[in-house]
Write a structure and sequence with these properties.
The chain is of the alpha/beta class. Helices cover 36% and strands 21% of the residues.
């Protein structure tokens, strides 16, 4: 059994093709721009059996086959429920489904076993150094590198994502250092710079949690395009 926050049956932005996206409950990071604060507490969510999830995902196999899609484990942080994650991924592979994990690389154990059944890792790089990582997420970047070290030894495909926040992670110096950092990773299929947005603010208000970046405006798409062009990312 595992704890699931929610399921999206026809996801289009969580990996290739049409995706069955499972949002796992629980996350140890507290990213200041997180738009899913309702996934943080491990005590929340709904208990579900891995094989039940596999059978639900299999209903959409015709859409996966026609679009090159599959299942994506997101969150929260799926790596915090390793036994449940492994059973679900293994069940999906037994059914011939493409598997992806959308993760911050901030888990607890069993990375080698998890990656055996993972076709694609979509890795969210929060920051380029420990100080910035801690200020942004409250976490320890060494935990992130523990996962990356195992990932680099695997045969799993890799996409990189990085949220560009005005005044925080949008300087040319920062992006150039990000490019330098990526030299320590296995071959990367895709790099995505994502514009900061504040679409989750209403959740903070509903939960009575102060939103840390209330003073920061969403990033202008033109500015993000300029950053990509100038840094060749």
């Amino acid at each position: 059994m595992g704890k699931v926050h929610s399921i999206e049956t026809m996801g289009l932005t969580d990996g290739p093709g049409i995706r069955f996206v499972v949002f796992f409950q629980g996350c140890e990071l507290r990213c200041k721009y997180c738009h899913n604060p309702d996934t943080w507490k491990a005590s929340g969510g709904e208990k579900m059996a891995a094989q039940e999830l596999v059978q639900r995902a299999k209903r959409y196999q015709q859409y996966f086959n026609s679009s090159g899609g599959g299942i994506t484990c997101s969150g929260g942080e799926p790596l915090l429920q390793p036994k449940f994650l492994i059973e679900f991924l293994k069940g999906c592979k037994d059914q011939g489904l493409h598997t992806a994990i959308d993760t911050s690389g901030y888990g607890i154990a069993s990375y080698e076993e998890i990656l055996k059944y993972t076709d694609l890792v979509i890795l969210d790089i929060k920051h380029i150094h420990q100080k910035g990582f801690n200020e942004l997420t409250g976490g320890n970047m060494e935990v992130f590198w523990d996962f990356v070290n195992v990932l680099n030894q695997s045969s799993t495909d890799l996409w990189i994502r990085h949220v560009v926040v005005p005044g925080v992670t949008d300087s040319k110096e920062h992006i150039y250092k990000l490019k330098e950092m990526l030299g320590h990773f296995k071959p990367i299929e895709k790099i995505q710079l994502l514009p900061y947005h504040s679409l989750g603010v209403h959740k903070y208000e509903a939960m009575g949690i102060p939103y840390p970046y209330h003073h920061i405006s969403p990033m202008c798409p033109e500015e993000l395009r300029r950053i990509k062009t100038d840094t060749e990312l």
